[in-house]
Amino acid sequence: MKSMTGYAVGESENNVFSASLEIKGYNSRFLDIAVYMPAQYSCIENNIRKAVLQFCLRGKVDITIRIKEKQNNMPVCISEAAAGAYLKAAETLRRQMQSAYEAGETMLQPENKLPIAAFLGLEGILETERPPAPSEMFQDFIMPLLLDCLKQFDAARAHEGAETAAAIAEYVLVLNTRIALIERFSDTIENTIKSNIKARFEELLKDRIDEQRVLTETAALLMKCTIAEELSRLKGHLNMFSAVIKEEQAPSKKLEFICQEINREVNTIGSKSPLLEVSRAVVDCKEALENIREQLRNVE
Fold first, then answer.
1. Domain ranges, residue 93
2. Are residues 286 and 162 part of one domain?
3. In CATH, what number is assigned to the domain containing residue 26?
């Protein structure tokens, strides 16, 4: 059993790249993989997703890759079109300010010379044309780092999953003990029903009691109120629950269905039994089931 939540981080570098990689896992009904990385290396995203599929079956998995290339020979070019447009706009502004100054509308006289440094920080003036490193080179660098982080991520999920399994086992133990208690009262339930029916006949008919009719009515009511079938199905559901935890790699969905079946049988027993002890055991069972469902929301 593994949790859907987890975290892993790693770093690596060579003579071309330095990189940091972060993996975060969240609860989700289905497997949802999101990869955040520089766009020029998105060609290897499919390989990253395939690697994640080896470790995860459910959950939302966010992978963030930050890359720094160590090349120093980055060419820088000037966009003449952008520079010309900025200069034209600047000259228009200078003329308007000069006209306003000469008309006495402002005390600010524009400069006739425009400093080059003022243009370098404008958007679109400087362009870099460094091509990305080949995708094969990047893949050979990043995939070992990814696999190391995925192993850390999987170990974290397994550790948290083991803690969840231990918590679920405690609630299953509550279910087993309460069901065993209910089973011990099954004969008492039948005897109580028999006594109640006979008491009603005595109250209504007094000395004219027909024993055969009492037996017939008792048998009919016992057919409706016996909990033997519910107890048998409950034991089967709990055995299946334990088997699924041990055998299934991603058991949460199947376990949720089994919990629904267990809850149905427990509710039926609660509606049939007239005993306070059984009613209390039913409440404990329903509380344990709710706690199990809460734990299963985080299980793969």
1. 76-128
2. yes
3. 3.30.230.70
Per-residue pLDDT tens over the stretch 163-181: 999 999 999 999 999 999 9
Give yes or no: residues 215 and 262 share one domain. yes
pTM above 0.90, yes or no: no
Residues 171 and 238 in one domain: yes
SS (H, E, C) the chain: CCECCEEEEEEEECCCEEEEEEEEEECCCCEEEEEECCHHHHHHHHHHHHHHHCCCCCEEEEEEEEEEECCCCCCEEECHHHHHHHHHHHHHHHHHHHHHHHCCCCCCCCCCCCCCHHHHCCCCCEEECCCCCCHHHHHHHHHHHHHHHHHHHHHHHHHHHHHHHHHHHHHHHHHHHHHHHHHHCHHHHHHHHHHHHHHHHHHHHHHHCCHHHHHHHHHHHHHHHCCHHHHHHHHHHHHHHHHHHHHCCCCHHHHHHHHHHHHHHHHHHHHHCCCHHHHHHHHHHHHHHHHHHHHHCCEC
